[in-house]
Design brief:
The complex is a heterotetramer, with two copies of chain A (about 300 residues) and two copies of chain B (about 230 residues). Chain A is an alpha+beta fold and about 300 residues long. Chain A folds into two domains: about 190 residues, no CATH class; about 90 residues, Alpha-Beta Plaits (2-Layer Sandwich). Chain A contains nine helices and four strands. In chain A, strands 2-3-1-4 form a four-stranded antiparallel beta sheet. Chain A is elongated. Chain B is of the alpha/beta class and about 230 residues long. Chain B has a domain of about 60 residues. Chain B has seven helices and ten strands. A six-stranded mixed beta sheet of chain B has the order 6-7-8-3-9-10, sandwiched between helices. A four-stranded antiparallel beta sheet of chain B has the order 2-1-4-5, covered by helices on one side. Chain B is globular, with a radius of gyration of 17 Å. Classes of the chains: A alpha+beta (about 300), B alpha/beta (about 230). Chains B and C meet through helix 5 and helix 6 of B and helix 5 and helix 6 of C. The structure holds adenosine-5'-triphosphate (ATP) (2 copies) and magnesium ion (2 copies). The site of one magnesium ion has 4 residues of chain C, from helix 1.
């Protein structure tokens, strides 16, 4: 569409006027966008952090590989290399039986007198294996146990499976929740925009009959939608930003061992995405709402 | 310039508003459209504006079949026609000035043109001192005059006025008629649907009479009346 | 029955719509309110309905100061007054029948009364066959007549008609005038704000003329005109 | 207000008509109520279940009370009684040193050979103490440790505090989230209702001028609000009910060790509360929205 300077000026003047003369509509729409995106954003942060905590727990998982007694040191080296080749293994470290006894003693704490009567160290040498992908822990353990020189493999069978099940469930639930919330936000925002256009359908039909093109009528509505979308999502993001940081601070003060996401880059992307979503829904919502009344 | 060929209009609820109307209007005509309430006068003007489509027959404007216009041609058609609507149809959130300016903005008029013509048009209908008021703050007659100013501001090819004096006192009505005659003399075709028998009788212009959707009379220098 | 004592009305934007109007209307009067566009006729009727409050002076209706009514008395006042509004004010989501019935429902009319009186009123204004249509499906004159039917259906003490013939052809206008006279003869006070000089002149009833907010004439058996 | 049968009939007719003739408004309002209450309800269920899981974890906490060697059996009885009197204690059970050795042996699993060389059982007799209110565990432990006959008290110092901090934090966060969500739901629902009344403000002012009392105008709007509130919240509750039960089933199948709330009574109250909230907001929202336009 060819567009003169006059038309462009008209669009901006028109958008500003409409926003101010329909104060109430503007406020309701902005508020709805803010509330919807606040809920969405807060849930996203919740899901991201739950995932982060789950990952943290998973990363504490390890496989303990007990060796056949009296293995030659080159056999041990050989075995270490082979363990590295097992899919999913990230790090392997050797734990001598002396070190293991030490650990056991420390673990028993004040009851370590139990071990007083023992002369010969009955514990075996072992490898401590960290996984890169914790889901593969059971498979890796099975493979490692069949390697030569391995007597036994231990990784908290049972408990680990439980933990992994729970974290996997939480991830799936998180995706479903976020998906549903995005749909909900879209519905709420587009409802309020459609209703605010509906309240002005008469005006649209008058404009139409005076010879205004569809784009001429639509553009101020689109700009209005974009402005409301931006304002609404901006307010949401500012609120989210400050409450999340004060939340992170509170947590780091009172429950410091709970690992929260405080990665500026990630948060920046997240907040940017929310603003983008607000803009987009505002624009697309206005587009389709107006279209409905343009068929005159 | 305008041709109606065997035009019929049946509304969705089955009301037959126009029945087999055939009529020609030349450029520069001044035409009174008369007929009892519900005769189909407004419907006829709606067909010209393509607000409604004819059920049967053709409406030709400037050589083009109005019903067959492409959707991007419709705004161009409407900008050639100035309309004073029976129910005014002012934009409630715009002041009188903005309402009149809107007709120019729609057509892409420059700021200078708007600044010049809008006050002129408001002056012509005697609303210069009410330009900053909103339609809801105007009296009935003032709203009607705002609608007239909007219709004439972009100097249309065709001016349709639907009952333009319904809310005006006799003096203002006659001033308006002089204004319409002046505009007509400058080349604009004028169609005026009206019940003002005194005006019709005094002017001795062309009169087309509808009754119950049928064209019952078309006289070159006619008087008010629709038979029956 | 109605007294205006030195009534002035200044709207929020500073427009002086009425200036020191003093006037008395007795029960059973038939009064024409005339004056140029913007003279203050509609404003005067709005004060009676308490849609607007006078800036100065008193409006007395049936012995009560309208401005001092308690909020629960206002609906009772309004139910005593039937009004044909200049802009019709039909409820857009109700059919013609429902619009007319609404005036009775508001006053708590029983179903039998509604079933009897609504068709009667529609018959009187010639809309019996359009009762199931919505206002947007009516012609201008039909909407006006629907408004008239609604105003007369509950047999009000006072009937205010603001430009009731603005969208009606002469024949229908005269039928309406006969109807108003009939209603007046049965005891209803009628105030008719109008620009229809021919009707005013023919009837030789009381004429009150406003101009620029001032009362310029009040004649028992007057003709159309407002000096100047 | 005295009200005839006619008026009553008018109200119901009017409400039904309005709902059907403003289809679009009705749908948007119902949808908004549904979505808002779905989010609120789902969050309530989430918070309730997190609390439940936290409680479950807390209930697994216990204090181990080690006794001075060779305590006489009546002294042991005496001590048990005294422990019962400590505030917050729910259950006390005696663990003899033989039982403790047995447990230790079982705990060491295949490495129980370590204990082979030990002749005399070095472990003390002990009480295992369950708490009624887990927050009091540290206090109770301190009190118990000062009782005569107690040598030492152990309750997983450190870890338990962490767990309790986290669960307390989650409870506070839950209350804040639910509070915020209730406000959000109120805002969203009342916005949509206000906007749908706003779209009909002209009608209200016409009715007013025709002599309708405020109540006459308001009642159909109130009934409409109640109907929309009921429909919206009913749909929300039905969706919640079915998805929650299928969720509970999935969990009990795949992660059976996670304890979820499936108490019919509690859920019934919760869902009833949601419907009540929907009704209330619909009615109160309509009341105030209409009031705004009644001042004519
Ligand atoms: N949108 C519509 N849907 C259904 N019927 C309609 C519609 N618009 C008009 N009608 C009917 O068509 C007929 C002609 O209406 P029209 O508005 O053309 O009359 P008119 O000659 O302008 O009358 P008036 O002088 O009263 O304005 C009327 O009977 C009216 O009821
Ligand atoms: N709500 C309002 N706010 C401000 N000014 C108003 C308002 N309503 C009317 N006016 C002004 O008051 C004056 C009188 O208006 P009113 O409607 O009473 O005129 P009228 O005699 O009915 O005219 P008409 O014959 O054109 O209907 C006009 O100049 C109008 O602009
Ligand atoms: Mg018409
Ligand atoms: Mg008036």
């Amino acid at each position: 569409m060819a567009m003169g300077v006059n038309t462009l000026a008209y669009f901006f003047k028109e958008t500003a006027r409409s926003l101010f003369r329909n104060t109430w509509l503007s406020l309701a729409a902005t508020g709805t966008i803010t509330v919807s995106l606040l809920i969405l954003g807060a849930s996203l942060l919740l899901v991201i952090n739950t995932n982060r905590i789950a990952l943290d727990l998973e990363q504490k998982l390890e496989i303990r590989v007990f060796l056949v007694p009296n293995l030659a040191s080159n056999q041990v080296k050989q075995l270490e290399k082979r363990i590295y080749l097992v899919p999913g293994v990230a790090r392997v470290s050797f734990v001598s039986k002396e070190k293991a006894m030490e650990d056991l003693r420390r673990g028993l704490g004040e009851r370590k007198d139990i071990l007083a009567g023992i002369k010969k160290n009955p514990l075996p040498d072992a490898f401590q294996v960290k996984m890169a992908r914790s889901e593969q822990i059971a498979n890796a353990a099975a493979q490692i146990s069949s390697l030569p020189g391995v007597e036994q493999v231990r990784y908290g069978q049972g408990t680990v499976e439980k933990l992994l099940l729970v974290t996997r469930w939480m991830r799936i639930a998180g995706i479903i929740i976020i998906g549903a919330l995005i749909l909900a936000a879209l519905f709420l925002i587009s409802s309020i925009i459609r209703l605010s256009v509906f309240a002005r359908r008469q005006e649209i039909s008058i404009m139409k009959v005076l010879g205004a093109t569809n784009w001429f009528i639509r553009t101020p509505f689109l700009l209005e939608g974009v402005t409301l979308g931006f304002l609404g999502s901006f307010v949401a993001v500012v609120i989210l930003y400050f409450s999340y940081w004060s939340f992170v601070q509170q947590v780091s003060m009172f429950v410091p061992f709970v690992p929260l996401v405080a990665d500026q880059r990630l948060l920046f992307n997240l907040f940017g995405g929310l603003v983008g979503l607000g803009l987009l829904v505002g624009m697309v919502g206005s587009f389709f709402s107006v279209r409905k009344y343009l068929k005159v | 310039m305008i041709h109606f060929y065997h035009v019929s209009k049946v509304y969705q609820n089955g009301v037959k508003a126009l029945k087999d109307v055939t009529m020609h209007i030349s450029k520069g005509d001044f035409l009174f459209l008369v007929g009892p309430s519900g005769a189909g006068k407004t419907t006829l003007t709606k067909l010209l504006l393509r607000e409604e489509l004819p059920t049967k027959g053709q409406v030709i404007f400037c050589g083009k079949n109005v019903a067959r216009l492409k959707s991007q041609e419709i705004p161009l058609l409407r900008r050639k026609i100035g309309v004073v609507f029976q129910d005014f149809r002012l934009l409630p959130k715009k002041t009188v000035y903005e309402n009149v300016a809107f007709a120019l903005e729609v057509a892409g008029g420059s700021r200078q043109i708007i600044k010049k013509r809008v006050p002129e048009a408001l002056e012509m209908v005697g609303l210069a001192d009410k330009q900053k008021m909103f339609p809801s703050q105007l009296s009935g007659g003032e709203q009607q005059r705002a609608g007239i100013a909007r219709a004439i501001v972009n100097r249309p090819l065709l001016l349709i006025t639907d009952e333009p004096t319904g809310n005006l006192d006799p003096k203002t009505s006659w001033e308006l008629i002089y204004l319409l005659q002046e505009i007509n003399r400058l080349g604009t075709t004028v169609i005026m649907a009206t019940h003002a028998w005194d005006i019709v009788n005094a002017l001795k212009k062309r009169v087309v009479a509808l009754s119950g959707g049928q064209m019952v009379r078309d006289e070159k220098r006619g008087a008010y009346g629709y038979g029956g």
